[in-house]
Design a protein that fits this description.
mainly alpha; about 70% helix; three-stranded antiparallel β-sheet; about 525 residues; three-stranded mixed β-sheet
């Protein structure tokens, strides 16, 4: 058994040794094969590297040849430009030299001319001195012959020429005015009529009282309150007089301020609807109504400027436009008057080829000075111009506002358009209501103004003050004086009186010759 194990071990050892011998033999063969293959790969790589090297050298030579050709071409172009630049420089130098030569020649000629002029000036001065001596001698002889000095003769001549010139100037002035009227009236009448026809305006007469209707007369007692405390509180809070009389189911609210009347009307309406009428409640309701009316004023202003297509107006000016709704001028609602004037200005400016938007803006704001927050001594035109300037309006608009009653000098063409449209809106039938006493006083002042002239016998204001008939004495006033008198009266009316529309002045001179046949 042991012998068999020993034999088996020996056999195993012999097998291992034989396997290692065979593996070593195979490994040697593989190393030889790998070495031969590596040598082959190295030789092949060397051949490829040599080939690649030759190709790159060839490409480098071609690139060098191409770059050299490009460089030579650039050098040629630069040399060509340098040659052309040198040629131009030489031409400029040649031209400058020629100009210098010509300039030197001209300077020499000018020096010669200057010398000749100096000689001529010396001759002229000598002749002037001689002429002055002759003139003085001539004047002395004339003074001796006429018995007058030169200054006295000059004064008499100037006075005579002045009188003659004044007379001729008046005639020429009247002819020019009449000719201008004939030519301008037709076109002006056409533009004004078209502007008026294209503007539909309402009759906007305002009253100083408002009637508040009641459901029953029993409410009057609640409004008056115990011992009249409610009505006194309401009048004190609103500044409006409440007249409670025998008029059935009505109370009269009286105030010259339409805004206060509106506050009183709305407050009274809310108090009656609420049923609680006592002094504390009255003050509360009036305060709320005043705030809501301020919001309504702003809304009215915004709606007005939007409807008229006016943009970029300052918020304070918009609020003033809204307040116009509750103001009146000679009985005419101020907002309606301003809107009408704005529309007329826009149409007339468009007809005349001017800026209609600018004219419309000035027309809307021309009476803005009638709704100030504080009292002032300035007229409404000057105050309106000041407010417009304060809130950044165009200088043309500022001037148009201040000049629409001739209180400022008109500096822009738009200013007379605003003045004319304001007069059209205020003078149309039904626009304004004038107090009878003021109307009679205006008629009387118009007649007295004409009677103040020498030679005027009688004066009559007719057609509601739109025409003044002046009758003169034929012995004291000539036909030429009649034209002069008519012109002077018209100018004085225009500068001293305030009136709507225009006034026609007619001077009548009549000469009667009477004889009796017996």
């Amino acid at each position: 058994m042991e012998l068999a194990i020993i034999i088996g071990v020996l056999a195993l050892i012999v097998g291992i040794v034989a396997g290692r011998f065979i593996f070593a033999k195979n490994t040697k063969q593989q190393l030889e094969d790998a070495e031969a293959k590596a040598n082959s790969i190295i030789k092949e790589a060397e051949l490829r590297a040599e080939t690649l090297k030759k190709e790159k050298q060839l490409e480098a030579k071609e690139k060098y040849v191409q770059l050299k050709a490009d460089y030579d071409r650039d050098v040629l172009e630069r040399n060509k430009k340098i040659v052309e630049s040198e040629a131009r420089t030489k031409q400029k130098e040649l031209a400058i030299n020629q100009k210098e030569i010509a300039l030197d020649k001209q300077i020499k000629e000018n020096d010669t001319i200057k010398e000749n002029l100096n000689k001529q000036i010396e001759v002229v001065n000598v002749k002037r001195t001689e002429l002055e001596k002759h003139q003085e001698e001539h004047i002395r002889r004339l003074e001796k012959v006429a018995g007058l000095s030169a200054e006295e003769a000059k004064a008499q001549l100037i006075e005579g020429l002045r009188s003659q010139a004044i007379s001729q100037a008046l005639v020429i002035q009247q002819e020019i005015i009449e000719d201008a009227k004939v030519k301008a009236n037709k076109e002006a009448r056409k533009i004004v009529i078209q502007s008026i026809q294209r503007t539909a305006a309402e009759v906007t007469i305002e009253n100083t009282v408002s009637v508040f209707n009641l459901e029953t007369d029993e409410i009057k007692g609640q409004i008056i309150g115990r011992e009249g405390r409610n009505i006194r509180a309401l009048e004190a809070a609103t500044g409006v007089d409440l007249i409670v009389d025998d008029t059935p189911e009505a109370i009269v609210l009286s105030s010259f301020d339409p805004l206060r009347r509106e506050i009183a009307r709305l407050s009274l309406q809310r108090l009656i609807a609420d049923g609680r009428i006592h002094p504390a409640r009255i003050e509360e309701v009036v305060e709320k109504t005043r705030k809501q009316l301020d919001e309504q004023v702003a809304e009215i202003g915004e709606r007005t400027v939007i409807e008229l297509g006016i943009h970029g107006l300052h918020k304070e000016l918009v609020r003033m436009v809204g307040r116009m709704r509750f103001r009146s001028s000679y009985g005419q609602n101020l907002l309606m008057h301003s809107r009408e004037t704005a529309n007329l200005c826009g149409i007339m400016a468009a007809e005349l080829g001017m800026n209609p938007k600018l004219a419309k803006r000035a027309g809307l704001l021309h009476d803005i000075g009638k709704v100030p927050d504080e009292e002032t001594e300035l007229s409404h035109a000057l105050l309106g111009a000041k407010l417009a300037e304060k809130y950044g309006e165009n200088p043309a608009i500022v001037n148009a506002i201040g000049a629409h009653h001739d209180e400022m000098e008109m500096q822009y063409v738009i200013s007379p358009i605003i003045q004319a449209c304001d007069a059209i809106s205020g003078a149309r039938p039904g626009a304004r209501r004038e107090i009878m006493q003021q109307y009679l006083q205006r008629i009387k002042d118009l007649e007295n103004l004409a009677l103040g002239y020498q030679g005027v016998e009688k004066a009559y204001a007719i057609q509601a003050g739109r025409e003044l008939r002046v009758i003169v004495e034929a012995e004291k006033v000539t036909d030429g004086d009649s034209d002069k008198l008519s012109f002077e009266i018209a100018q004085k009316i225009q500068t001293e009186m305030t009136y709507p529309g225009q006034i026609k002045v007619t001077v009548i001179r009549e000469k009667r010759a009477v004889n009796m046949a017996r």
